[in-house]
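tool=predict chain=A
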Amino acid sequence: MENKQAKAWAVAQNITVSIDLIEAAKTHLKFLDAVEHRNRFLFEDDVLQRAVYRYNAFWLPLLAKHEENPVSDESLVVPLDCELIWHCHRLNPVRYKFDCEKLFGRILTNHNVMSSIQATSKSTSEEIWSKMYPAEPYELDLERPLQKSSQIEKFTRYDLIAAVKRQTGFTYQ
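tool=predict ok
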């Protein structure tokens, strides 16, 4: 057993991290704070259902397209409601990997994607979104009736609403 652990330790020593982990952690805490304290409505059932729909129907396909052939030279900015669902989906990496590979043939990453709270300008992402999805606004609009398409087949079967609900109150800890 010790030999196996020593080998694993040696392999781990060669892992390089290309981002500033302290800065990334601070940004992530700002995101959690923005969701938990300033956008508490995102945890309401009807809002979550809409956010999960938007995540599956719009954000994941846009992200897949962007990874295949970048839709912009700038980083994509994920809408806050989709970012919350994406965050919770990725907290279950086995399920996220399974869903991405089943739906898109590969794992979708956050390469060249910026958090909605980190971005200074969302205009390019809003333009791309509007061109791809003219009937759906970039920002979550609870006043508009949701126009669900029956043609959308690429939806995860993972209970994302339950995944989000499990995270309620996380920043309180």
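The mean pLDDT is 87. The helical segments are 2-12, 21-38, 45-68, 80-90, 93-104, 123-132, 160-167.
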